[in-house]
Design goal:
- By secondary structure, this protein is of the alpha+beta class.
- The chain has one domain.
- Helices cover 30% and strands 24% of the residues.
- Strands 1, 2, 3, 4, 5, 6 and 7 form a 7-stranded antiparallel sheet that branches.
- Helix 2 packs across helix 3.
- The longest helix is centred in the first third of the chain and has 15 residues.
- 40% of the residues are buried.
- The model has no long low-confidence stretch (mean pLDDT 96).
Length: 153
């Protein structure tokens, strides 16, 4: 059975504060390694892991219609190829995957005034909740590229 956006958001937020290292590997990276059969196994201190974080959340809540790739580029291509892409400047929905220059995370909330929040891994070497502006298409000094739309029930 497919997951809901709320289940994905709750799972992502449950990891806030976890830093790179053994706990991160056990709770976030290892479930992705197991699901993908990655050899050698990825480790948070050796691999960029924001895309792995997003895929691991979806794996753990048994979501569907997402990419298990370890790279932002491949995940973004997956959503575009499958016609589940929202352009920057459009208001994303909670549970969608935000892609910013070289980074990604799971949108947790948005407001009509243009602000939003997302949870991501490998943000200053940990899982964090950060703010972005969907109307301006910015996350700090980085540009929002768009949003992937997973399949939820």
């Amino acid at each position: 059975m497919a997951a809901t956006a709320r289940q994905a958001i709750n799972k992502a937020k449950s990891f806030i504060g976890i830093k790179e290292g053994a706990v991160c590997d056990k709770k976030i990276i290892d479930p992705w390694n197991k699901a993908t059969g990655c050899k050698p196994p990825a480790k948070s201190k050796k691999n960029p892991w924001c895309a792995i974080f997003v895929a691991s959340v979806f794996i753990q809540v048994k979501a569907s219609g997402y990419s298990k790739s370890a790279t932002c580029k491949n995940q973004k291509s997956y959503y575009k190829k499958n016609k589940r892409w929202r352009n920057k400047g459009e208001r994303p929905q909670a549970g969608e995957v935000i892609f910013v220059t070289g980074h990604e995370g799971i949108v947790t909330s948005t407001s009509y005034n243009g602000t939003g929040k997302f949870t991501s891994g490998n943000c200053s070497n940990m899982v964090k909740d950060t703010s972005f502006n969907w109307k301006k298409g910015t996350w700090g000094s980085k540009k929002v590229e768009g949003y992937g739309i997973p399949k939820y029930k």
